Amino acid sequence: MEINTVDRSVSQGTMTAVQTAEGLRVFMANVFSWMTAALVITAFVSYWFASNESLFSMLHSPEGGSTILGWVVMLAPLGFVLAMGAAFEKLSYQMMMLLFIAFAVVMGISMSYIFHVYTAGSIYKTFFITAGTFGIMAFVGYTTKTDLTSFGKILFMGLIGIILASVVNWFIGSSSLDYIISIIGVLVFTGLTAYDVQRLKNIGATVENGTSFAGKAAIMGALALYLDFINLFLMLLRLFGSRD
Predict the structure, then answer these.
(1) What is the pTM of this model?
(2) What per-residue confidence (pLDDT) applies to 8?
(3) What is the pLDDT of residues 108-138, one digit of tens each?
(4) Helix/strand/coil (H/E/C) assignment for every residue in the chain
């Protein structure tokens, strides 16, 4: 009887480990699927608006400044992020999904300007560099045994510093400060990629797949990784992009 009890306990423990591993795999697959879908939507919409003069003119005036709609589009993504985070518990999975798709569309509209500032070749080259860097750091974050929590706190403080410095530079327009912000930004968002992947891996090991909570958590995880990717891309583009 003792042997049977031990065998049964080992079997149950093995099944639990297998179920946990499978649940984690499904959760992370959902995260990266949503992130990839959002990037595709953003890229398509961005190129569409940039290549259509009538659409682009709705965002930017002939004098070079942004129109009212342009300002709304530029600030709207922040509103989407804050709304999705603040109302996470109240929103349904379907509503969270719609907000995320709308966010990706608005981001595409707001990023259409890059096709009028940088050459297409440098945009594509920077995108592939970003994808490679992101992939490496995502792999590091997923496989490392080191707890990156403390590292993440430091990176978050760096992110706050970037935001404050960017606001200041918006008024003074210093090219040197812009260069420094871009370098620090590359380091911060490279590190945040590894941190966020590890954080999501820990979440994925505890959520029950198939539930509304798991679906919403996957979308929020995709949002975090999407922002890491986009910000890393923009920082690298500011450093190495060739201007028209």
Answers:
(1) 0.88
(2) 41
(3) 999 999 998 999 999 999 999 999 999 999 9
(4) CHHHHHHHHHHHHHHHHHHHHHHHHHHHHHHHHHHHHHHHHHHHHHHHHHHCHHHHCCCECCCCCECHHHHHHHHHHHHHHHHHHHCCCCCCHHHHHHHHHHHHHHHHHHHHHHHHHECHHHHHHHHHHHHHHHHHHHHHHHHCCCCCHHHHHHHHHHHHHHHHHHHHHHHHCCHHHHHHHHHHHHHHHHHHHHHHHHHHHHHHCCCCCCCHHHHHHHHHHHHHHHHHHHHHHHHHHHHHCCEC
